[in-house]
Specification:
322 residues, mainly alpha, two-stranded antiparallel ribbon, Na+/H+ antiporter like fold, 1% strand
Length: 322
């Protein structure tokens, strides 16, 4: 076994470093220089992330793969319906205290997120799955998530009074949807430059996420919000997140077999349907929630780390079987 695969992704280490700094130096999140503040820098970073997302969308690959609509429908249904419903069915049994409701909504938020693009495609490729369909589904998932994630969260966001729903959609429109559309429109002009400098641009994406994570956790630590949960509930989050992953992962495997999909398509359905995007999770959280953002991000970060390790081993196993 390659020892490098057992080591954490450097990006994961930076995220944990951001949380550590947020704990010891939460006051830095309130930094500003005139009109320039950390919040403004993050907003600009978010707009850039989704502008570049529009630039990199491969329209020809998407058009070419439209005929495989049954697989796409099942994959998106797993991501945006089966996942949230698996969490939502437990709502009647959750104690309606502040701590348990925070815990429940944070896990429900994870379940409502779209799939991640890069790691989905990489893992599908490793496992000898349908890579073209993985690109299509991961890209489509990000676009659908702009609408469906806040729609699902409106069940609880309005109820908790965290934010006005109309302002959330306006924020999503200005910071996420419009930059994607602008990126798509400018693709014929700027697309070649994006592909030329894609590795450097990817660092900007990751820097934005690290800043969002630092900002979110710094405010959460400063406000003392984590004391609402305590270590016992954080351990519960980890157990629930891991169980949720395995439940949906193996259910999607069983369902895709029952529906007679080819092996390569089954792998794509499993991997793309059960991936959850830390990028979208971080960005959406900064728009959807005004308080306790660090708590809402905690299950997303745990799931992101867990899925990277787990699916990398499963992908290697599938590749050997192929």
């Amino acid at each position: 076994m390659n020892i490098k695969k057992l080591l954490p992704d450097p990006f994961i280490l930076f995220l944990f470093l951001a949380i550590t700094i947020g704990y010891f130096l939460p006051q830095a999140a309130s930094w500003n220089l005139g009109n320039l503040s950390l919040d403004l820098i993050i907003d600009i970073g978010v707009i850039c992330v989704f502008f570049f997302y529009g630039l990199k969308l491969n329209k020809s690959e998407i058009k070419k793969d439209l005929s495989n609509w049954r697989m796409h429908l099942l994959t998106q249904s797993i991501t945006f319906f089966i996942f949230p419903i698996c969490v939502l069915i437990f709502y009647p049994f959750i104690p309606k205290t502040e701590a348990y409701m925070l815990l429940f909504i944070s896990i429900f938020y994870l379940a409502c997120l779209p799939s991640t693009v890069s790691s989905s495609v990489v893992m599908v490729s490793m496992a000898k799955g349908n890579v073209t369909s993985a690109i299509f589904n991961a890209s489509l998932s990000g676009i659908i998530g702009i609408f469906l994630t806040p729609l699902w969260m409106s069940l609880f966001v309005e109820q908790n009074g965290d934010a006005d729903l109309s302002s959330i959609f306006i924020d999503l429109l200005l910071k996420i949807l419009l930059p994607v559309i602008l990126g798509l429109l400018l693709q014929p002009i700027l697309g070649k430059y994006y592909h030329k400098y894609s590795k450097k641009i990817a660092k900007l994406d990751k820097l934005t996420i690290v800043l969002i994570v630092y900002n979110s956790f710094a405010h959460t630590f400063h406000d003392g919000s984590f004391s609402i949960l305590g270590w016992q509930k954080i351990i519960i989050i980890f157990i629930v997140v891991a169980s949720l992953f395995y439940l949906v992962f193996y259910f999607s495997k069983w369902l895709s077999k029952k529906l007679n999909f080819e092996r390569a398509d089954q792998i794509t359905i499993q991997f793309c349907g059960t991936k959850k995007s830390l990028v979208h999770g971080s960005v959406f959280a900064s728009v959807l929630f005004t308080d306790n953002i660090g708590i809402y991000l905690l299950p997303v970060m745990i799931y992101h780390t867990f899925q990277l390790f787990t699916i990398s081993f499963i992908a290697e196993k599938y590749a050997k079987e192929a």
